[in-house]
Design a protein that fits this description.
Oligomer: single chain
Largest sheet: 8 strands, parallel, barrel
Distance between the termini: 16 Å
Number of strands: 10
Number of helices: 11
Strand order of the largest sheet: 1-2-3-4-5-6-7-8
Strand content: 15-25%
CATH topology of the largest domain: TIM Barrel
Low-confidence stretches: none
Mean pLDDT: 94
CATH superfamily of the largest domain: Phosphoenolpyruvate-binding domains
């Protein structure tokens, strides 16, 4: 998934627009964008939307961000939305593999009650959103077959740290948050799942979004969270490989196929080793090629 667009669960018009935005995934948010007194109403709205939207042809993947385990609201969230058959649960403040195992068990129970196959709903963990999450980030490997990706969040983390801001006057992440971003990349690599870049909050700054997203792709992220439909086309474009990249990847794979015992091959005057082959294979796999 290249682009995943957040929408408050209680905003019907925004949810409808999100479905037509071109996003690969629509995140129906029950957490930060919903005040405590509106949680119950938002759960019903989320279920109603899921029930209708899941039937649509050629739809984006449907995700729901629940409230974290520490809130005491997780069970109510799951009971309300699992019967609507979301594709993925976005798990905020996931702190290590044990927390995912905990959520996995809750999903097992709710899927059984709803008559759904066990394991049908996957998990995208927001695994680096707290200080504890940073220290637990290396513990996600093999924790659950449901885990399909990891992301991070500087907003909750900066609030916990008591920071005045998580970006400098030029809009660049400050050191504590650059570190957290890197931890997410390493943790996803350890867990062998894709890393998804966090939101870019200056949603009117499309050029800033483009530069920041290009940096994310360069560093190893495979997609990005979005907070506005206008961000989706930019994110999709940046994470879509160019024709030249596809041609090169095919050439690298073909060169190694022609030399199956080689640790490195020459191509167009350059040497390519096995890590280059792995990157080329990942790129082509992402396209189904």
């Amino acid at each position: 998934m290249r682009s995943l667009l957040f929408v408050p669960a209680d905003s019907g018009k925004k949810l409808d627009k999100a479905m037509a935005s071109g996003a690969d995934g629509v995140i129906i948010d029950l957490e930060d964008s919903i005040t405590a007194e509106k949680k119950a109403e938002a759960r019903k709205s989320a279920f109603d939307f899921l029930k209708d939207a899941s039937k649509a042809a050629n739809r984006p993947r449907l995700l729901v961000r629940i409230n974290g385990l520490e809130t005491g609201m997780t069970d109510d969230d799951l009971a309300a939305i699992v019967p609507g058959t979301p594709d993925i649960i976005v798990f905020p403040k996931a702190e290590g593999g044990a927390s995912v195992i905990h959520l996995d068990a809750k999903l097992n129970a709710q899927e059984a009650i709803a008559g759904l196959p066990e394991g049908s709903i996957k998990i995208l963990a927001q695994g680096v959103e707290s200080a504890m999450g940073i220290f637990k980030a290396g513990e996600f490997r093999d924790c659950s077959k449901r885990l399909l990706g990891m992301t991070w969040g500087p907003e909750d983390l900066s609030s916990e740290l008591g920071a005045e801001s998580n970006r400098d006057e030029n809009g660049q992440l400050t050191e504590p948050y650059r570190f957290a971003r890197s931890v997410c990349l390493y943790a996803a690599a350890v867990a062998k799942v894709p890393a998804i870049e966090t939101v870019y909050v200056d949603f009117r700054n499309s050029e800033g979004l483009r530069r920041d997203t290009q940096d994310a792709r360069r560093d190893g992220f495979t997609g990005r969270l979005a907070i506005h439909p206008a961000q989706v086309p930019v994110i999709n474009e940046v994470f879509a490989p160019t024709q030249a990249e596809i041609v090169k990847a095919k050439a690298v794979v073909a060169a190694f196929a022609a030399n199956p015992g080689a640790g490195a091959v020459g191509l167009d005057g350059k040497m390519y080793d096995r890590p280059h082959l792995a990157r080329a294979q990942r790129l082509l796999a992402s396209l189904g090629k």
